[in-house]
């Protein structure tokens, strides 16, 4: 009789765990945030050799995803001489964006091809801190006059 009682307890435990597992499996999974459009207008200041370029930027679209303004600094830079595989000077850089409101930072990798006309480049979000620790995204980067770049794309 002790064996029957023990078997009933084990079966009861198995049934309880099975029901708990079913509830966990059936629980709805939180949906990932939908990508939001973002536009960042950036102006970079170039100093003398050995001093990383810095910039100021404002967000004209996407303030619900990132802060409205901040500063930036190049953390790495690689240039490939003329001609690259696309017949232009190829530049890759990593740039840290720091929000003026103290909400955090985010790191972008940017890539550009400079030829007689400035072809649009690309950017991808590498990492973030604070409010931007789990942020991801990417898009295009269009160089303009006077060291200006417009970064457009999506973040979530």
Question: How would you characterize this protein structure?
Answer:
The protein has one helix at about 1-25; strands at about 35-45, 55-60, 70-80, 90-100, 105-115, 120-130, 135-145, 150-155. It has two domains: about 1-30; about 35-155, AOC barrel-like, CATH 2.40.350. Mean pLDDT is about 80; it is low at about 5-30. The protein is an alpha+beta fold. It contains one helix and eight strands. The radius of gyration is 25 Å and the shape is globular. An eight-stranded antiparallel beta barrel has the order 1-2-3-4-5-6-7-8. Helix content is about 15%, strand content about 50%. The longest helix is centred in the first third of the chain and has 25 residues, at about 1-25.
SS-based class: alpha+beta
Measured as a percent range, the helix fraction is 10-25%
Order of helices and strands: HEEEEEEEE
- Mean pLDDT reading: 80
Q: What sort of overall outline do the alpha carbons produce when their principal axes are compared?
A: globular
Count of DSSP strands:
8
Question: What assembly state would you assign to the polypeptide chains in this entry?
Answer: single chain
Q: What's the CATH topology label of the largest domain?
A: AOC barrel-like
* Radius of gyration based on Cα positions: 25 Å
Architecture (CATH level 2) name of the largest domain = Beta Barrel
What is the count of distinct domains? 2
Q: In DSSP terms, counting alpha (H) and pi (I) runs of 4 or more, how many helices?
A: 1
